[in-house]
Amino acid sequence: MNAKNLSERLKTVASFVPENSIIADIGSDHAYLPCYLVHSGKISRAIAGEVVKGPFESAQKQVKSEGLEKHIDVRFGDGLEVIQPTDGVQTVTIAGMGGPLIAAILEEGKERLLTVETLILQPNIHAKAIREWAINNEWKIIDETILEEHGKIYEIIMLKRGKMTLTDRELLFGPILINNKSVVFEKKWINESNEWRRILDQFNKINFTPEVKQKKEELEHKIALVEEALNA
Questions:
Q1: Domain end call among 126, 154, 173
Q2: Which residues 6+ apart lie within 8 Å of 75 measured at CB?
Q3: Number of other residues whose CB lies within 10 A of the CB of residue 190
């Protein structure tokens, strides 16, 4: 993978980015995504944010090697602190992290989102945490998709400002994904359900504390939701 030949995962993230928007790519690693978007002509300005020194330096080198220093500003900082009000950022992308971490980044830096109209988020796991954050902070799901690449399954969620309510099913599966029920969607949730059943089996072999009881009930509820979703 490089700045002109992205993985399918990052290509899909890129496809969600509105044309001509100013973006901030948080956790940008090698800055492949913003470089790709500028090269394709979809955007002309971007910030690539990194909190880890090695990836930050890699992003700087990548942007320089692509000749895009006038278009992409590589910044060192934690989460959304790389964004300033004067940047006029309209779109934030965060890809390749766990859902709870993405939600924490958004929560800790939400005062930096004043000019932001669109959030494009690609959690590796636990996308539910992002949907919960969106509800609590008045963002709504505009689009979402699911894909498999190299044996791993990824969800991508696009948010814009607005209120929404979601059922337990929609929180877990995604309101758009649950309606589409793609082959990848079914594969993901069959695998998840099988893993939860394995954990339940382990619970039956240990002391039955109140904490175990609560966790067992949560898993049983999620398994029931999966069965209902796949059989509907």
A1: 173
A2: 47, 48, 49, 50, 82
A3: 12
Among 138, 148, 72, 153, which Cα is nearest to 106's?
Answer: 138
Specify the DSSP element, H or E, that contains 161: strand 152-161
* Burial bucket for residue 34 (CB in 10 Å: 0-12, 13-18, 19+): buried
Domain boundary, last residue among 149, 173, 197: 173
Instruction: Give the whole-angstrom CA distance, residue 218 versus residue 212.
Output: 10
Fill in the DSSP letter of residue 5. B
Q: Which amino acid is at 103?
A: A
Decide if 217 contacts 196 (C-beta within 8 A). Answer: no
Confidence of residue 1 (pLDDT cuts 50, 70, 90): low
Tell me what the mean pLDDT of segment 190-219 comes to: 89
Q: What predicted TM-score, i.e. pTM, was given to this entire model?
A: 0.94
Q: Say yes or no to pLDDT of 207 above 80.
A: no
Give the residue carrying structure tokens 């695998």. Answer: 191
Query: What percentage of the chain carries pLDDT values higher than 70?
Result: 99
SS3 of residue 147 by DSSP: strand
Whether residues 35 and 138 fall in one domain: yes
C-alpha 86 chain-centroid distance: 25
Per-residue pLDDT, 208: 75
Q: 20 and 90, same structural domain?
A: yes
